[in-house]
Recover the amino acids of this structure.
């Protein structure tokens, strides 16, 4: 069985055809423009591939409640050309196959649990720190959804006493995303993350905000593994800082061996599927139903 | 079928016998002392009741992973007499019936979803604000567990600029529980919550901390209903303050109609089962498996 998989991101769409074993047999990338430009290219790619179903891990917010009339429709996204765009409906109509949609981060949590760095556990939190901050959870075979999908990047963290940057979030100013996503780093320091790679002060501050968030996620969700990806996390020096600060903030309250000095390196980890977590997650999403 | 139900709390145990319809046919309450004193009374109560199974909603932390060798055993609880006490194992051995254990707040989330103020939705967060602050989540027929059960009361919130109270939590000082549970209110203001009922400043501060927590829970879990109970919430004037502040903090980012001025009164609500949420949850826990 050949399965279609789409990682629909704010800057690019990854289109792939894969197998039930998680093997990607063909893949291409196109840039995200107006839906009238992007979507015909997506449909053209899949048209002659003989796929029986298609999975999509999408940027959001998006309605991913299968029972809803607007399942697969984008909502109030900052990508204004895509607001209210029926991504799922358009694919289904054009390709005449079942379409399964969840958020990019929820499907990444799924694929990391199936094939990646959380494949030995049942509960995984996947966080991406890039242009924005988002997270998805895959717990005991279900992604976490309720009212809508989570928007974990918008929690409040305590400001570092030496940081007076006002934050970039148009809704909340200095929420986690407003203080710690890529654009906040660039605007606060006036340089790109890459140019700041050797400035320890930058990454210590960044790690403080991310560790606060992870500590809250641990108290609220209690995942057995935390996978962190995204452009900002290419700065690998962040990992030891974050781990150390999470241990310090938990202060021994959570007694699991996973969150001790001995095992924390295996608890807070980069993605195992590197840049394919999204597209493989979309593949797995379509396989499951 | 008669089912045993226990709400095992830090100050009292509620013991009940009920039916599959959620009816409690007999109930008694005993105080929580040393297990050597309390447990023989528990066993004596159930011995001649002809129950076929028993459900327990317990204080924690407790191992509630059914696959674990120490399922039903208390962990590093502040009630030192109960540390490492095999609550589930003791009941099973003495009464020779299957025993099902989860946290007090997880089972309260279950019973509110089955019979209480969340019976029209699939995803419910139950929070108790009393001697401590705890929360449980029941999402699509599962309670939320991973590494362990959540410990949502220990998240960090931003300090109110006019509050310099250091907090009561022995692990984190000024985490949510340290700033906003009953003992923190009493110690900060030098009076009991009841005596402070008319002091608006007290409840505005309390609502600020609780609203911050609820906002974080909404971003991370996205529940369709939030039920808040516990001793501190007997101060009903807290509800309008909390609702208003949550709307202000979300600032329109979550677009569901549930979190709008029009519907927030039905979104953040007191328990429907009042003081029976725990024991009825224990009953439901035993019925489900």
């Amino acid at each position: 069985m050949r399965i279609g998989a789409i990682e629909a991101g704010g800057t690019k769409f990854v289109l792939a055809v894969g197998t039930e074993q998680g093997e990607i047999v063909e893949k291409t990338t196109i840039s995200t423009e107006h839906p009238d430009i992007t979507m015909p290219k997506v449909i053209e790619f899949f048209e002659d591939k003989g796929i029986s179903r298609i999975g999509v891990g999408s940027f959001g917010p998006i309605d991913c409640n299968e029972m809803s009339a607007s399942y697969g429709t984008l909502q109030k996204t900052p990508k204004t050309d895509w607001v209210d765009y029926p991504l799922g409906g358009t694919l289904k109509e054009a390709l005449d196959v079942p379409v399964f949609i969840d958020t990019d981060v929820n499907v990444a949590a799924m694929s990391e649990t199936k094939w990646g760095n959380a494949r030995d556990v049942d509960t995984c939190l996947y966080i991406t720190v890039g242009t924005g901050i988002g997270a998805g959870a895959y717990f005991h075979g279900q992604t976490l959804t309720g009212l809508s999908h989570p928007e974990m990047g918008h929690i409040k963290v305590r400001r570092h006493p030496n940081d007076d940057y006002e934050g970039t979030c148009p809704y909340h100013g200095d929420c986690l995303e407003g203080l710690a996503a890529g654009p906040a780093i660039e605007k606060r320091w006036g340089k790109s993350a890459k140019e700041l790679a050797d400035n320890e002060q930058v990454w210590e501050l960044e790690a403080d905000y991310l560790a606060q968030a992870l500590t809250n996620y641990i108290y609220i969700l209690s995942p057995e593994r935390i996978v962190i990806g995204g452009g900002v996390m290419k700065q690998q020096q962040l990992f030891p800082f974050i781990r150390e600060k999470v241990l310090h903030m938990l202060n021994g309250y959570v007694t699991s061996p996973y969150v001790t000095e001995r095992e924390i390196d295996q608890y807070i980890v980069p993605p195992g599927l590197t840049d394919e977590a999204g597209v493989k997650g979309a593949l797995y999403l379509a396989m499951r139903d």
Q: What stands out?
A: Chain B is about 35% helix and 20% strand. Chain B touches chain A through 47 residues (CB under 8 Å). Chain B has two domains: 3-104+275-287, 117-270. Chain B has a mean pLDDT of 94.
